[in-house]
Amino acid sequence: MTIETLSETSCFGGRIGFYRHPSTVNNCDMQFSVFVPPQAADRKVPVLTFLSGLTCTEENFMVKSGAQRVAAELGLMLVSPDTSPRGDNVPDDPDGDYDFGLAAGFYLNATEKPWSRHYQMYDYITRELQALVFDTFPGDPERHGLTGHSMGGHGALTIGLRNPQMFRSLSAFAPICTTLHSPWGQKALGYYLGDDRSTWQDYDASEVARRSGEVAAYDRILVDQGADDPFLAEQLKPELLEAACKESGLPLDLRIHAGYDHGYYFISTFIEEHLRFHATRLGA
């Protein structure tokens, strides 16, 4: 597969790069970023993929989280894809809003036209990006963890719980815990999947958790949430995820932090704990 290097530079003894490639899944060019730690010079290393939230690109996590210092210490490769397909022919929100369309792919496979031609982010994350990363970079596919923020936290939970054979560790920051009961989710899935809400359940983190039972791959699922997050009550609803995990027996560790909101100051505060959480489970 052809990969275009947009930029590469040294970082904490490793290398951070930004790349573009033609996506057969999304029928457009896609971009992603990778931090390769110094330990990868002589061996394959574990990988942590971070899925970003609404309005974000492949740059936000790498630029704002401050994750590279600890990832270099632990020998973790970091991967962050863009949040949606893009391009002149890719349809966007009809009203030009931020919560649907470009930068709002919701990590699902759209079934409704015109979205279905391009918005196949579930397959992109679980198939195309997997092959791209592990065929091109020195990552170990047997030691792969998944995390994300907000819309990306929703993606991490739904993808991770549906694919425990692919990921060995799972966490999230301030995830959208339900699409069935969130205005963001209702709007996006209504467009992408249509009016039949029974088709939404595979892309609702709480519903997936309720059906998952005890997923042997995960001894603990770490979720951090800011208590002062302005989207907490209306959009995120972690209490629904907590109830679903209790019902199914999933080992959820939901931590609520006073004084923190939804942004990258919150993520950068707790990113080291998440990196060490994943490193322990991935054998870094």
Describe this structure in words.
The structure is a single chain. This protein has a single domain, classed as Alpha/Beta hydrolase fold, catalytic domain (Rossmann fold, 3-Layer(aba) Sandwich). Strands 1-2-3-5-4-6-7-8-9 form a 9-stranded mixed beta sheet, sandwiched between helices. The model has no long low-confidence stretch (mean pLDDT 97). It has helices at 60-64, 68-74, 121-136, 151-162, 183-193, 205-212, 232-236, 238-248, 264-282, and strands at 4-11, 14-23, 28-36, 45-51, 77-81, 139-148, 169-173, 221-226, 252-257. The protein is 33% helix and 23% strand. The chain has 284 residues and is an alpha/beta fold. Helix 4 packs parallel to helix 6 (205-212).
Record the SSE blueprint:
Blueprint: E1 4-11, E2 14-23, E3 28-36, E4 45-51, H1 60-64, H2 68-74, E5 77-81, H3 121-136, E6 139-148, H4 151-162, E7 169-173, H5 183-193, H6 205-212, E8 221-226, H7 232-236, H8 238-248, E9 252-257, H9 264-282
Parallel strand pairs: 4-5, 4-6, 6-7, 7-8, 8-9
Antiparallel strand pairs: 1-2, 2-3, 3-5
Helix pairs in contact: 4-6, 6-8
The CATH class assignment is: Alpha Beta
The beta-strand count equals 9
Kindly report the name of the CATH homologous superfamily: Alpha/Beta hydrolase fold, catalytic domain
Question: Structural class, judged by helices and strands?
Answer: alpha/beta
User: N-to-C SSE series?
Assistant: EEEEHHEHEHEHHEHHEH
Report the major sheet. 9 strands, mixed
Number of domains: 1
CATH architecture call: 3-Layer(aba) Sandwich
Large-scale geometry: globular
Helix content: 25-40%
Question: How far is the first residue's CA from the last residue's CA?
Answer: 28 Å
Please give the count of helices: 9
* Lateral strand order in the biggest sheet: 1-2-3-5-4-6-7-8-9
Low-confidence stretches: none
Look up the CATH topology. Rossmann fold
Tell me the strand percentage band.
15-25%
Mean pLDDT comes to 97
**Radius of gyration in whole Å, from Cα?**
17 Å
